[in-house]
């Protein structure tokens, strides 16, 4: 998860299912003795000597990338908290039914070794962490290769800042890389084409730059809000939906800012990330009652929209989130918007 930290509409589910080719009917996974594959992951060349057969994933978005590509048969399990909403209605329900749920916490070395994993697919703050020593280098010493979620790649601006490319580019990069690694390039290309088509249709209805509502993403936190800079998925979810992320200039993915920054940028809409022990309703109550936000346009007009956690991290649900947020933003009056 992007520490600290809905069902997709039926039409979008149908699109996702069509784009994946309904699983293995489009392509079959390659045999384990296929030749090695070299990919660029987080700016580095990484060579995988064989096609992984026992992949372990961390968190819902990463897990659903595998499911969307029809790679359940290449998985040994996944780890994720049980606060990610109702998973029974997603296009990849069969994947959740088929693949073992290893842990309701983050992955550990013990999970990986017990599962006899031959690849760990996770991300920085989506499983990989220096605290506890669960890192790609530590796994390499155990003989287990890794693939790092591109949204989470560290960018070198600070010791922990993340994001090396626009969020949707990160999504497409991972789908392309996974397609190559597992020999399902056509399936990956079809999925990406479907996503781009859906997003393009939404973009065509977006308002001009000067008419776009200002949007603040609220993940969690009361003393300081945890939110999204330009390299986390909400950046393009907001922009493709026709809004402007008020923290577009923050060169990080998921990060903390001060409430004074939020007040100064006066968002027209607040998007709540729904997950965890604090419900979206409780988060909304806090925002509406927090005195420093009293003069903010979104609070004055009670313009608060909720998206699920998996909508707002890199995942195959991002296009659906863009469409749903766009429909909401089109209801926001233009008066008072920033140019």
TrEMBL record:
Signal sequence annotation: 1-24
Pfam families for this protein: Peripla_BP_2
Transmembrane segments annotated in the record for this chain: none
Domain spans labelled Fe/B12 periplasmic-binding: 54-336
Keywords, comma-separated and alphabetical: Signal
Keyword Signal among record annotations: yes
Family that this chain belongs to: Belongs to the bacterial solute-binding protein 8 family.
Entry protein name: Iron transporter
UniProt source species: Streptomyces phaeofaciens
């Amino acid at each position: 998860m992007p520490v600290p930290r809905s069902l997709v509409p039926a039409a979008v589910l149908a699109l996702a299912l069509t784009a994946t080719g309904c699983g293995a009917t489009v392509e079959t996974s390659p045999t384990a003795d296929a030749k090695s594959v070299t990919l660029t992951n987080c700016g580095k060349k990484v060579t995988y000597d064989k096609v992984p057969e026992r992949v372990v994933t961390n968190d819902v978005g990463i897990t659903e990338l595998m499911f969307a590509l029809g790679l359940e048969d290449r998985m040994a399990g996944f780890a994720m908290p049980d606060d990610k909403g109702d998973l029974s209605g997603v296009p990849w329900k069969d994947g959740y039914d088929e693949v073992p749920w290893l842990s309701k916490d983050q992955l550990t070395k013990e999970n990986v070794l017990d599962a006899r994993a031959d690849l760990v697919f996770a991300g920085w703050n989506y499983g990989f962490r220096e605290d506890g020593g669960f890192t790609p280098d530590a796994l390499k010493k155990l003989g287990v290769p890794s693939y790092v979620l591109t949204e989470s790649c560290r960018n070198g601006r600070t010791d922990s800042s993340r994001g090396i490319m626009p969020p949707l580019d990160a999504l497409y990069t991972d789908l392309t890389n996974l397609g190559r690694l597992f020999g399902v390039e056509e399936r990956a290309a079809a999925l990406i084409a479907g996503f781009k088509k859906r997003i393009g249709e939404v973009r065509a209805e977006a308002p001009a730059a000067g008419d776009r509502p200002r949007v603040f993403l609220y993940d969690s936190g009361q003393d300081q809000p945890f939110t999204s800079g330009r390299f986390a998925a909400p950046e393009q979810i907001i922009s493709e939906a026709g809004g402007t992320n008020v923290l577009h200039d923050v060169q990080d993915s998921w990060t903390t800012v001060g409430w004074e920054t939020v007040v100064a940028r006066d968002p027209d809409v607040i998007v709540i990330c729904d997950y965890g022990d604090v419900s979206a309703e409780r988060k909304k109550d806090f925002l509406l009652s927090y005195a420093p936000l009293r003069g903010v346009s979104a609070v004055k007009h009670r313009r608060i929209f909720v998206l699920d956690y998996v909508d707002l991290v890199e995942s195959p649900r991002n296009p659906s989130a863009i469409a749903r947020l766009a429909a909401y933003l089109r209801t926001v009056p233009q008066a008072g918007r920033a140019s």
